[in-house]
Design goal:
Length: 1201
């Protein structure tokens, strides 16, 4: 039985053409169900092609033919295999006739083309596996679709054909082993003009210059052809000197018409003797003849360049004609394939061209119309001809350049055409469109004279061989074009361009389009496929702890932009893809299974796309203003080893460098065995250290704003230098984290550090990078992270927090000592630790509330953690509550205070004794200054806390650096000395960024025993600011399946209930009901204050809306966090915008950002201040809007004992 289904999946806008002799025997199967179904004879093969139905039997018009003997399929192999590739130029409603053959077994069907991708699935048991596969087809016109037995028409403009290797060998090219082979794996699966031109050139070479390769196996034969084309392309790149470029630009500047650039004619560029020799020119050539005549297309490209690829303004490649004039013979190179492809493309049916005028051009045409139609009414009178001005963009659409006179170009249209265009414009205006005039031109038509493209191409190559100094398109015209079959040009432009110039420009334009094709061009896969492959073998090792490992080699330093992003413009090749790994039998894989091993030997295959293997210049070719330049050449891009352990999730990486440099390294320092080994390249030790280095290298490679948009491959010597200069402590700590993940246990507990999609993403996060940052922004800068930053990020891991909670005598210093010791047993990383003990820099300090600097200066006999826990005013006057940390062995504490300093607590004018850890001092005078000291019954008296009741406390700016001469380096935020009250360094970040003093409280208002854990590790309900005495409500990020809470961070409230019912799209949670409401009568600020006080959050019932000044005390102007707040203590996960609330609210605009209500009220009492942390500012907002609410309390107050 024969099953057919044809799939066309991507419509593209270039016409497809090709030709070939018909393959041996053939048979057909019915078309798709949605097409007209002719009665086709049955087929001899079996497979599935999308869109068809089932058939079986023999060939057309005769008895069945015995097929060639089949190669028996391997019993353990796959039963089917799929080929897929684009049909370039196909449109949605086109119907194609397809034919596929292998040996004498063929299949044929027709299908409506919907998306532009051909797909065919072979039932392997029904096909010979050792015969070449031929695929051909063409688009069917209306008459052919009704034919009961249509034949492949190899003279059709849409004809295509491709010859592939045998099915047995094609399966080896399926690197990802998904059973589908496409044009990215085998370029000739793209049915387009480049594939056809290559096959024509290949056929000609195998019959002439390379006939000794004609009988070789398919892959060997075509590798020889690509190598031949490559070798002949090596000396086609011209890099002018600065002087040559300047003289050239001076010439083009002289062609300008006013401010407009004009491009026409040729430019003769004299070459240096060295340049002439590099291009293969003969030494005996006279100096005055050592020149290149740049054509118009080259002039335009070299002068304007490509803003995305700066190299295009500094170099160009020779045309076939220019190479022939230098060498005196036809050069068979990649440029020849592109020029023949351009001709094939022009011979295809071209779509009409619509030119739209701009406002000023439309006005000029309107003035001509009004000359015969005065007044304001609709024009009805048209006669004579009309001159329609065209600009450079229009010429580009037409595939033309400027006229030799340099004047502006115009279309000349007759009255009938102008009347039709005018009517269309009036209809556009009625439909509220611009009404700019739109002119539709028939394209230039290049005849084929009823010849197939292969025969045209062979004829052109024969004539080129005899007369290589004549342009390729002219040889075509000499052979094909006659008076009976002329080239049809733009008649509307013949007054400016004669027919010959139009044809020359059109050909040059099409060639230049292919030469300059970016990576979104539909023919780019086939253009890249012209390059031959080069191979490299290397061996390496990795730690034996990874017992379920697999390996990939990844190509690319700069990742491919996400679809739709700003940089997704075709500038970049597809990167961060695994390269093919070759087995001895030629089978390709993208992943190598290394289970139970700790070493590898791999052979990789990459294409020499830019012919730069011999030049080998990895790195950034040209700096450029924005450093956008990036190599598309696989020889020069960066290779990185990725090893992933399936069991532990551990990921190892090692940046190797570029292919061309690695290959040269093997020859320079290698042992001659053609394998790059560890002794020749240290980075083949793929271990914990190399992984840490790859993380830090990524950080260093970002832009100063932390984006990855300018990443580029590093040269070998640069990698060596950067790895040498990386700070050892950061390398060791990151490497130790990798070793910990591989081991899977810490201090007797199982541990898994993976919190993100992959372990490597967690490693990047430790170094301050987020791989999912918007617009490629992974970080805020490209500075290497400090040891403290990595340590803090490690300390914040959930799994680390679980161990710290279970082991109260352990802190992060103990953990770092433990994990760095793992590196001492890593043989793979031993090269890094010659005469150095891993972790020798680690200082272990005991679990204490004191910072290490304070542990050195003070002892545990002294009280620490002294701060303000509340303040206010009552009938006796002002009051304040002081708090302190528990002292071991103490049962009673004496608090003494008075308005003058004192040293002996017993001499204080006022004293309180308590067993608690806080006490309230009553009846304070508003304008007084009080000196407060505390002493336990087992310790020494504390340092003095100085307090003024009505002092307005503002948080430190957290700015640690400023202009020369300012005082930003003389505040609390820059003082590293010990604060004897808190027991922290004055600029410590451990209790709040640079001088802030926050204390996490539980639901009862008690300090958490471990203040060094994150909210994710151990949640807390409130935060005490020990500098001001304010207690802040902690907002909660509710997880899925958790009950609702009045403290959820997405609850929103109106400051006042609207008088009239309106749309309130925000919502809040009703207390103790686990339901939410969108009723502003419920979701208002007064209700939330009441609910929180009733719940006695953190044991307090004095919660209120904060003032503007109080909210400002939370600001972190140092931008340590994107919220301008210390998110370790204020773990706000999001600030909603109107667009995230579901619908557009009737008061505010789409995308409006919400903040936190304050008491700050406008004079008309219609607005209140809203604090927006991400902007660090307070804005006045309507009191009926929904906003967030974070309540504040004046803190704790106790009765005097």
């Amino acid at each position: 039985m024969l099953f057919n289904r044809i799939l066309i999946s991507m419509a593209v806008a270039l016409p497809l053409i090709a030709c070939s002799d018909q393959p041996g025997k053939e048979s057909n199967s019915p078309p798709a169900a949605d097409t007209t179904a002719p009665s086709l004879p049955p087929a001899t093969g079996s497979g599935t092609a999308s869109g068809g139905t089932t058939g079986s039997g023999g060939t057309a018009g005769g008895s069945p033919t015995t097929p060639d003997p089949l190669t028996p399929p391997i019993a353990t192999g796959p039963s089917s295999f799929t080929l897929s590739g684009p049909v370039v130029g196909s449109q949605k409603n086109d119907t194609y006739l397809f034919k596929i053959c292998s040996g004498n077994v063929c299949d044929r069907w027709q299908s409506t083309v919907e998306n532009g991708v051909f797909e065919y699935t072979f039932e392997l048991s029904q096909w010979p596996l050792d015969k070449s596969v031929l695929i051909e087809g063409n688009k069917l016109d209306a008459s052919a679709r009704t034919n009961t037995n249509p034949e492949i028409n190899n003279k059709a403009n849409s004809y295509f054909k491709t010859e592939l290797d045998s099915l047995a060998n094609l399966q080896k090219w399926d690197g990802n082993k998904d059973g589908v082979l496409n044009e990215k794996e085998v370029a000739k699966l793209s049915f387009d003009s480049v594939t056809m031109a290559y096959q024509t050139v290949a056929s000609y070479l195998l019959a002439n210059q390379l006939k000794h390769h004609a009988e070789k196996p398919y892959d060997e034969k075509h590798q020889a052809i690509r190598n031949y084309l490559l070798e002949n392309s090596l000396n086609t790149l011209v890099i002018p000197t600065e002087e040559q470029l300047q003289k050239f630009k001076d010439h083009v500047d002289g062609l300008k018409l006013g401010p407009k650039n004009k491009f026409h004619g040729e430019y003769t560029m004299p070459l240096t003797t060295e340049q002439w020799a590099a291009l293969g020119g003969k030494a005996e050539t006279a100096i005055e003849q050592q020149v290149i005549r740049l054509n118009t297309a080259q002039m335009k490209t070299l002068y304007e360049g490509d803003s995305n690829r700066e190299a295009t303004g500094k170099q160009f490649r020779l045309t076939v004609q220019q190479s022939a004039l230098i060498k005196g013979e036809l050069v068979y190179n990649q440029q020849l394939v592109l020029e023949l492809s351009a001709l094939y493309n022009l011979l295809a049916v071209q779509p009409p061209i619509e030119l739209t005028l701009d406002y000023w051009e439309s006005r000029q045409v309107t003035d001509q119309i009004k000359a015969l139609n005065p007044g304001d009414g609709e024009a009805t009178h048209f006669e004579g001809t009309y001159n329609v001005p065209l600009n450079a963009a229009h010429l580009n659409q037409l595939g033309l350049y400027d006229v030799p006179s340099g004047k502006n170009v115009s279309l000349v249209v007759n009255a009938s055409t102008m009347r039709d265009v005018y009517k269309t414009s009036q209809l556009d205006i009625q439909q509220k469109k611009t009404g700019f005039y739109r002119f539709v031109l028939s394209p230039i038509l290049w005849p084929t004279a009823d010849k197939n493209l292969h025969s045209i191409g062979i004829n052109v190559l024969q004539k080129l061989s005899a007369n290589p100094s004549r342009a390729l398109w002219r040889h075509y015209r000499d052979s094909i074009v006659t008076e009976a079959t002329p080239v049809k040009v733009y008649t509307e432009l013949e007054h400016d361009f004669n027919a010959d110039l139009q044809q020359e420009y059109r050909f040059l334009h099409k060639v230049n389009e292919l030469v300059m094709a970016n990576h979104k061009h539909p023919l780019k896969p086939s253009i890249l496929g012209l390059a031959p492959e080069k191979y490299l073998r290397f061996s390496g090792r990795f730690p034996p702890e990874l017992q379920s490992a697999s390996l990939q080699i990844i190509l690319g330093s700069r990742p491919t932009p996400k679809p739709g992003e700003h940089y997704d413009n075709g500038r970049y090749p597809e990167r961060h893809n695994p390269v093919p790994l070759l087995a001895n039998d030629g089978e390709r894989k993208t992943t190598l299974d290394l289970k139970g091993q700790n070493g590898f030997v791999v052979k990789i295959a990459l294409r020499d796309i830019d012919n730069h293997f011999t030049l080998c210049r990895p790195g950034r070719p040209y700096e450029g203003q924005y450093k956008y330049e990036y190599t598309a050449d696989e020889m020069q891009d960066q290779l990185t080893v990725h090893i992933v352990d399936e069991k532990t999730g551990t990921e190892l990486r090692s940046v190797l460098g570029s292919f061309c440099e690695l290959a040269q390294l093997d020859k320079k320092v290698g042992n001659g065995n053609d394998i790059l080994e560890i002794s020749e390249l240290e980075r083949l030790n793929v271990g914990y250290v190399s992984t840490a280095q790859s993380v830090l290298l990524m950080k260093m490679s970002l832009s100063k704003y932390g984006t990855n948009n300018y990443l580029h491959p590093w040269r070998h010597e640069q990698l060596v230098a950067m790895y040498r200069d990386m700070p050892r402590k950061q390398v060791e700590l990151l490497a130790a984290v990798v070793a910990l993940q591989a081991k899977g246990t810490l201090l007797g507990n199982k541990i898994n550090l993976v919190e993100r999609a992959t372990f490597y993403e967690d490693l990047l996060a430790l170094a301050g990078m987020n791989i999912y940052g918007q617009h490629g922004r992974l970080s805020t800068n490209n500075l290497l992270p400090s040891l403290e930053a990595i340590q803090n990020n490690l300390n914040a891991k959930v799994s680390i927090g679980a161990i710290l909670l279970s082991k109260l005598d352990v802190n992060i210093s103990h953990i770092i000592q433990e994990i760095t010791s793992l590196l001492s047993t890593s043989t793979v990383d031993s090269y890094y630790f010659k005469n150095v003990r891993p972790g020798s820099w680690v200082t272990v300090y005991p679990v204490s509330s004191l910072d290490p600097i304070c542990q050195v200066k003070y002892n545990e006999n002294q009280l620490f953690g002294i701060g303000i826990a509340g303040k206010g005013k009552d009938s006796q006057g002002d009051w304040m509550t002081v708090r302190w940390d528990r002292q071991i062995g103490a049962t009673n504490y004496i608090i003494g205070w008075q308005t003058t300093p004192f040293s002996d607590i017993n001499s204080a004018a006022n004293k309180i004794t308590t067993q608690k850890l806080y006490a309230t001092l009553p009846a304070l005078e508003a304008k007084g200054t009080y000196y407060i000291r505390i002493q336990s019954d087992v310790g020494e008296v504390s340092e003095t806390l100085e307090y003024r009741p009505h002092r307005t406390f503002l948080a430190d700016s957290r700015v640690t650096q400023g202009i020369v001469g300012d005082d930003s380096t003389r505040g609390r935020d820059s003082d590293p000395s010990c604060d004897p009250l808190s027991g922290k360094a004055k600029n410590s970040n451990s209790d709040g960024f640079l001088g802030a003093r926050y204390i996490k409280l539980d639901a009862k208002g008690l300090p958490l025993r471990r203040q060094d854990l994150t909210y994710k590790q151990q949640s807390f309900q409130c935060v005490l600011d020990a500098q001001s005495g304010l207690v802040w409500e902690t907002k909660r990020a509710r997880k899925e399946n958790q009950p609702y809470s009045i403290h959820d961070d997405d609850n929103m409230y109106a400051m006042a209930v609207p008088e009239t019912a309106g749309e309130f799209t925000a919502s809040c949670v009703l207390p103790e009901l686990n339901i939410s409401s969108s009723d502003p009568a419920q979701c208002n600020v007064a209700n939330q204050v009441k609910w929180v006080n009733q719940a006695k959050l953190c044991g307090l019932n004095n919660w209120r809306v904060p003032t503007m000044h109080e909210l400002y005390t939370l600001l972190d102007f140092g931008k340590n966090h994107h919220m301008y707040m210390d998110t370790r203590y204020f773990p706000l996960t999001r600030l909603p915008t109107t667009s995230t609330l579901g619908t557009v609210w009737n008061i505010i605009r789409q995308g409006y950002t919400h903040g936190f209500w304050s008491t700050n009220q406008s004079l008309d009492q219609k607005k209140n201040g809203v604090f927006i942390p991400i902007w660090g500012e307070l804005q006045q907002r309507d009191i009926h809007e929904p906003h967030l609410l974070m309540l504040v309390s004046d803190g704790f107050k106790t009765e005097q004992q």
